[in-house]
């Protein structure tokens, strides 16, 4: 089992299909159907930014999932102290390989990156209907400290 950093936007866009499909099914008014060309172009455009990092988990050269993280620096303001965090944008394991500890291995990679960068906070959010994500992060001892709500008019 290897975790490798990548800038292969086509690979990430292929692995993203399941993430996008889940979002489009749960929230069809918010999310578009998966479009490989558009999503690949998006990932290509952001992969050059140094604060974004992508890691793929593989076994015998088969790509099983990925994590997209961002190193964020929050500036001090009159209400909040400054801090740095590693923000998890997306983490997914392809369906056939879920519940085998691979997501935890990707989280462990994020922990290593945080420690290397002297960062003591990892942040993530997920859509409220995504019970799989909620259960995964709860199991890995993530706690809620902020909620985002909306009301459609």
TrEMBL record:
> Per its record, what are the GO molecular function terms?
acyltransferase activity, transferring groups other than amino-acyl groups
Q: Spell out the Pfam families in the cross-references.
A: Acetyltransf_1
TM ranges: none
- Tell me if Membrane is a UniProt keyword of this record: no
Q: Which CDD domains match?
A: NAT_SF (cd04301)
Report keywords, A-Z: Acyltransferase, Transferase
Q: Which domain of life is it from?
A: Bacteria
The chain positions of domain N-acetyltransferase read 10-153
Kindly provide the name given to this protein in its UniProt entry: GCN5-related N-acetyltransferase
Organism of origin is: Paenibacillus vortex V453
């Amino acid at each position: 089992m290897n975790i490798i950093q990548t800038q292969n936007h086509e690979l990430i866009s292929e692995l993203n299909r399941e993430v996008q499909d889940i979002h489009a099914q749960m929230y069809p008014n918010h999310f578009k159907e998966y479009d490989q060309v558009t999503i690949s172009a998006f990932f290509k455009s952001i992969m050059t930014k140094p604060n974004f990092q992508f890691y793929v988990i593989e076994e015998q050269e088969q790509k099983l999932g990925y994590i997209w993280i961002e190193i964020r620096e929050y500036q001090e303001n009159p209400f909040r102290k400054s801090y740095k965090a590693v923000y998890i944008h997306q983490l997914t394991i392809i369906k056939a390989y879920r519940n085998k500890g691979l997501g935890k291995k990707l989280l462990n990679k994020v922990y290593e990156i945080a420690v290397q960068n002297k960062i003591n906070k990892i942040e993530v959010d997920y859509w409220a209907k995504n019970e799989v994500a909620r259960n995964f992060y709860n199991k890995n001892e993530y706690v809620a400290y902020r909620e985002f709500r909306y009301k459609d008019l």
